[in-house]
Structure formats: C-alpha cells, structure tokens
Amino acid sequence: MAENRASTNEETYGEGVPCWVDAQLPDVEAGKRFYGELFGWTFQEAYGSAVWALLDGDRVAALAPKTDGRMPTVWTVSFATPDAEALARRITAAGGTLITDPYPVGGLGTAALAADPEGAVFGLWQPGTHRGFGRRRAPDTFVWAELYTRDTSAANAFYGDLFHDALFGSGAAPDFGRADVTEVFPAEMPPHFVAHFRVTDLDDALGTVQRLGGRVQAPPFGTSYGRVAVVTDNQGASFALLQR
What we know:
Layout: E1 18-25, H1 28-39, E2 42-45, E3 51-55, E4 58-65, E5 74-80, H2 84-93, E6 97-105, E7 109-115, E8 121-127, E9 142-149, H3 152-162, H4 164-168, E10 176-180, E11 192-198, H5 202-211, E12 215-223, E13 226-232, E14 238-243
Parallel strand pairs: 1-4, 5-8, 9-10, 11-14
Antiparallel strand pairs: 1-5, 2-3, 3-4, 6-7, 7-8, 9-11, 12-13, 13-14
C-alpha cells in the first residue's frame, strides 16, 4: 500500500460531513482518461489497486477497481466520523444496515459501508493519515451530496439524528441535501446518493461528458444550491455536475 503524502490543504471534518468520494469501476485506466479530461485531474498510486485523483496536487477523489463484476459501478459518498464502530452501532439501532463492518485501510483510516432504512448506500470514514478531501467546493471538485429518497421526512429524521451537528449545529454549512426521487428520476429508481462536482460552465461540461462516451441522465434543472445535470460516465457510474 502506498502511503503518499496527504494534501497540505486537508481539513479536519466533523462527524456527518461528506469528507470523501470514490468510484468503483470495471476499468480504472478508462476512468483516469475520462475524469482526467473532464475535470483536469491527475492520478497517483493510492491503496491496493486504487488511485488518488489530484487537482493541483490536492486529493479530491479516488478511483478503485471493482473486485466483483456483480458489484455496481458507482460513486460512493463517505461521511466523516471519529469512531466508525460507534457510528455503525447507531446506524443499525436507527434502522439502517451495515453492508461492510468497519475495516482498516492501512494507516489511512477506517472505512465501512452502510445503508439507510430505505436502502440508500453511503460510506463511513474514520481518518488516520488521510483525513479526506484536500480540496472541495471549488471547480472540478466535490461540492454537494444529494440523497434521492421516497420519504424525505423519514430521511430527515434518520440523518438529522445521526448527523445532527453537521446538519443543524451552530455554524453548520452542510453539503448534503434530500429530495424526492421522482423530482429527477423515474419512480422505480431506488433511493440513492448522487455525488455532485462543481463546474464553471455546465453546458460545456455536458458536451465533454458526451464526447468522452458518457451520457446525460437528467438534463439541466434548477435547485436551491445551483444548476444541476445528472450524468453517467463511459462505464455507467452516475454523478452530477453543478454550476453555482
């Protein structure tokens, strides 16, 4: 496992703050070409067969190969926690489920994968040497996580209790919203998180996505947090582009 230097701009993230995103892909090299051209990312060996995505030397995401072809091709949003074991217990007590129990990722930190009561999947990250994003909210980096759910009231209750300080505490500036799945997706779409990356020109970025073999899943629409389009990359992983 490569223990590369952390970004000098890495923040310390409070519990419940989206602190990392990673894509599980059939072909990491193809992912590097796609996202390298779309966002200007460069790449560096990370853990196992994964790679860090860097923007001007700051860690902004990771791309990892799927270990099982039956696994989804997907972007996963992870939330920070100082204690993954304790948070995992709170998740199950609140009606969520653990997909993977907390496990160490070398000295980088401790990871886990969970699902809320409706089945939307998200990650947990307890930092070691890797605290999370070296840069966020800037162009070509993560800026927002939207949960598309069939029951926004239940989602607000679940996450509001789980991540109360991050969402409602003094000085909170959450990068996490909830919306009804039918506002953007067909009714049969299961509840899920969509990672949003900021762009300076949404229409230009959509043209680049299509030129690189991706597709537009939901054309541009207005939200309270910016102008958004949902797309898939050339391997089928969904994400959103946000201009604000």
